[in-house]
Amino acid sequence: MSNYKKPFTDLVDSNGKPKIAPVQGYVQGIPWSLHLEAYDAYCKKWSRQEALIDLEGRGCRGGFSTGELDSFIPGWRDRVSEITALRAALNDAQGKLRRITVAVTGSRSVSFDEVIHCIDHLVEIDTDLFCKAYIEQQAKTEVQA
Predict the structure, then answer these.
(1) Do 2 and 65 lie in a common domain?
(2) Number of alpha carbons in the 13 Å side-chain half-sphere of residue 77
(3) Staple 30 to which of 34, 54, 77, 127, CB 3.0 to 4.6 Å?
(4) 79 or 12, which is more confident?
């Protein structure tokens, strides 16, 4: 990534959600990382125009157009679809990790490092025990639902 100053390099907003850049003609917008990639290509072709990456401050023309993105990042639509699918998979994995955490620790809240430590410890002791605990918790969750 180029040598942008914060907040332009932040890929998440102040709420921790993935930052989405507007696109003229594409209501969903694109991930900020692709927007910065398009901006790099724009700068190589034209020149720097910081207003294109300062959307909160100046909001220059509402982002790139779909035609510009086609030119600057061929295949950008496929990449947006892949990023969306990866985010969904990550959310699914985070949900599974939360369920594993409850199975291992009960309902108490723990840090990510504690979860990893618990998982490593269980794997060391007996992988079958870990799987059994997870399956039992899944069964309890389904009965409660």
Answers:
(1) yes
(2) 9
(3) 34
(4) 79
| Averaged pLDDT of the chain | 78
Residue 80 lies in a domain: no
Least confident residue range of 15-24, 36-45, 49-58, 132-141: 132-141
- Spatial CA neighbour of 103 closest among 142, 141, 133, 143: 133
Task: Please count the structural domains in the chain.
Answer: 2
Specify if 139 maps to a domain: yes
- pLDDT of 83 reads 86
Residue labelled with tokens 């991930």:
31
Same domain, 27 and 60: yes
Alpha-carbon distance 30 to 118, whole Å? 37
What are the φ and ψ backbone dihedral angles of 30, each rounded to 5 degrees? -130, 155
Higher-confidence position of 84 and 141: 84
Strand stretches in the chain, DSSP E: 20-24, 26-31, 64-65
3-state secondary structure at position 48? coil
